[in-house]
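--- STAGE predict ---
source: upstream dedup step, 1 unique chain passed
mode: sequence only
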Amino acid sequence: MMFTLIRVIIVTIVLGVSGLNAQDFQGVATYKTKRKVDLKIDSTHTSLTPEVQKQMTEMLKKQFERTYILTFNKEESVYREDEELSSPQPQMATGGVMIKTLGGGGSDILYKNTREGSFINQNELLGKMFLIKDQLEVREWKLESDTKFIGEYSCYKATYTEEIEIMEANFGDGPEDEEPKTRTETRTVTAWYTSQIPVNNGPEQYQGLPGLILELNDGNQQIVCSKIVLNPEDKVTIKKPTQGKEVNQEEFDEISEEKMKEMQEQFRARRGDGGSTMQIRIGG
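--- STAGE serialize ---
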C-alpha cells in the first residue's frame, strides 16, 4: 500500500512538472523566403532589352529574399521581418524602370492565437497602416507519409490544394479603359512540419498541423526555417500589434484592389504626359 501511494505521488509530481514546462514553452524561429519571378513584358517596349529584363528579374528576386522571425509559445505567435535585415529600397534598373513591391514592409506584424483561431495583421499599404482582425483560415491538410530532415529535426510532409484568384494589372501600353484582369489558379501547398516541436503554428498564416512548420512551398514562394532557439534564456514577449485603421480581411482585400486600380490610372496619366518610366509592382 505504501509503495503504491509513493508511486502515485511521484507520477503526480512528474506530470505536474511536465505541465509546467508545456505552459512555459516558447521559442524563436528564423525563416528565409524566396519567390519565383516570371516577367511578361509587352514586345512594344523596345527599350527593355533582354539585358534590362534580366536585370529587372534579379532586382525583383532580391526584393523577395527576406528574413522573418517567428516568436511563439504554445498558443500565440508574432511573425515579422527581421529589423536588422529589412527589405531593400526601390531600385532603378537600366532603361528607367522602377522596381517597387506593394506591401510587405518592415512595419508589418502578424499576431496569431491558434487556440482562439484568430489573427491580427498590422499591414502597411502604400504608406497607410491597416490593422486587420479576423479568423484564421481552417485548411484541410492531407498528412503524407514522406519524411525528411531539416537541420536536426525529423519532418513530415503535408499538402492541401486550393483555388485562388490572381489579379493582373496592366502597366504597359494596353487600352486606357482596360480593367485589371483576374484569373483563377489551382495551387498546391506543401509543408514540412516536425512533431519534435509540438506547436500548432508556422510562418505567415500557415498553421493547423501537429508540429511547427519548418518549410513551405506553394509553387511561387518558398519559406525555409534556418534557425530555431527553444526556451531562450531571455524570455520572449508576445504583444498584439495596435497601429492602423481596423478592418477585416475582406475589407482589406477590397481596399488593396482599389489601390491597384489607382496605381494603374496614375501610371497611364504619367504615360500620357510623355513620361518614359515604367513601374512594375508585384504584391509580396
